[in-house]
Amino acid sequence: MEKTLDKKEAARRIHQLSEDLERHNRLYYVEAKPEISDQEFDFMMKELEALEKQWPGLASANSPTKRVGGDITREFPTVAHRWPMLSLSNSYSREEVQEFVERITRAHGRTLFTMELKYDGVAISLTYRNGELVQGLTRGDGEKGEDITANVRTVRSIPLRLHGNPPAELEARGEILMGRKEFEALNRQREGKGEDVFANPRNTTAGTLKLQDPKLVAKRHLQNFIYSLNAGDLPTQSQYGNIMQCHAWGFRTPDPQRRFIAQADTVEGIMEFIAHWDRERHHLEIGIDGVVVKVDSIPLQEELGLRAKSPRWAIAYKFPAEQKFTKLLGVEFFVGRTGAVTPVAVLDPVELAGTTVKRASIHNADQIAKLDLHFGDLVQVEKGGEIIPKITAVDLARRPAHARPVHYPAHCPACGTPLVRDEDEAQHYCPNEHGCPPQITRRIEHFVSRKAMDIGGLGGETVETLFHAGLVHNVADLYDLKQEQLLALGKGWGERSTQLIIDGIAASKAIPFEQVLFALGIRHVGEVVAKKIARAVGSIDQLAHMAKEELLGIGEVGEVIATSIRDFFGAEGNRRIVERLRAAGVQMAATTAHRRPQTDRLKGLTIVVSGVFETFTRDGIKQTIEDNGGKVSGSISGKTSFVVAGADMGPAKLAKAGELGVKVIDEAEFRRMIEA
Ligand code: IVH
After folding, report:
1. Mutate to test the pocket of ligand 1, among 90, 143, 292, 306 (most ligand atoms within 8 A of CB)
2. Cβ–Cβ < 8 Å for 428, 367
């Protein structure tokens, strides 16, 4: 039996739960010493969620429930930094670090330095007022950053409330990063769904922090380390001391026992720290790209002062990219969706920068020629920031006798068509657009991907299966698919998953024209360019009839893109596909306010949508409401006819609907209404 609390009791319980949850969160994510099981933690979280849902007025912005993501953020306002965010001067040689230390010691006498890791992530500024997190800003241009507070709250190692007696206002700075394991798991998941994999943890972190939906950010499991503190009144006059104080307040800071942070007052001590991490860095679960050496004394830091963009009291030593020699076993030629044929080296597996490298990119035919690659060569592979390593050199002295040279093929390895190469382009292409299997399937994969037509349920493997079963040969065929045909494919194609695909395809008809244009996969027309063109031109008919000179008048469109667009519409096959897509109901024009509704099933109704949907994107469901004559509203009021609730509808909205007696329906019921 659930007992109901009055408001005062609820407030007390919410406070208690919040404190306990934050403490256990800290024990888990900051101290790595959990005291309760995950299940107990979840129970407490559920209880808090339920109470906040019941008493929305009692839910604080820093409630632990916000860690799983609050409301959708629409944009990130720009905010000036109270203290500018500087960068570090980089050095790539140990001599430079030595000179830095000697210069300071000569002028100011022997002094203590603090050595830290240089985390390879994204800088963050965290402001706390009266111990409460109030703002999280990106570095931006150093003067102003973007306010990403809602996303920052989802990072578990960032405390929402501080312990002890911190100054009334303070700013902690640190790095947000994604661990190797989390990064690899994310990419495996994306691969499974047929989505493009991310290049490296750093860019993925940066992209994640700019996501509009904090719930998605929460799922990415980002981490944080604090490396500096700003306040009117600092707790100590030492960099090291301030970091330790930050730890006591509840921040995750580098662990001295693991030598993530250390101190020395001699060149030898500093060099030893650098040498240690140059060796050990590959065993770390997070990416670091160097070591930072800082003058420890804050008064001495102030005396040394700043250069234009960086302090005189710190220097970063960057590790060299790791390189190794290994044997070239073979070369595969990979055919992409645009027909570009890319050589990929197959290598004798070698450990490099913490991962086993089996393949490396060789970019194009010129690169093969430049390296004069032969099978069996010992090649040097290098891994910089990117996940895909590259071949940088060949050890000619160790080439086996009678080694055969690697030749770039004259014909497509998949379909045998002679390859072509445009002037001024480094890539060779297979021109057999409509007959070359990998081009066809990869084009369809691109078409259904999230940033294109966003057809959930379809991905790399499913597309291959549909193609090999003879069900789809091009993107227009998707719209002729029947559920019976999918069910007939047998194991793994059940009622639910096939319905999801059919619904997803139907829902994609509401995807806006700019995304459709990107989905078509016209060579060189990426997401951003597609948006520009769609807005400038307005419809596919307009675009298909534009002369090259007119196309060049659109911002972002240069010679290469204009030619590619002309070529696309010049091909009969493409024109036919566009016509079939149009006939199927896919958006071929930008929507404007005076677009006529297609039915009046929702006429006179004002509808609020909330949460995440299975068969609609957010824009998609709004479009569908308007297409059926309804009006979309952002907030619930007495005028709201009903709310369509997806998964994870915000508790505040749910409470509001309850209060005003507004009906809440789910996605399936909404579909029945419009499809009736
Ligand atoms: S101190 C003025 N310490 O490196 C001092 N920065 O090039 C600047 N970084 O944007 C920051 N680890 O994101 C400092 N232990 C560390 C760091 C660190 C990584 C990043 C930081 C900054 C960039 C500076």
Report:
1. 292
2. no
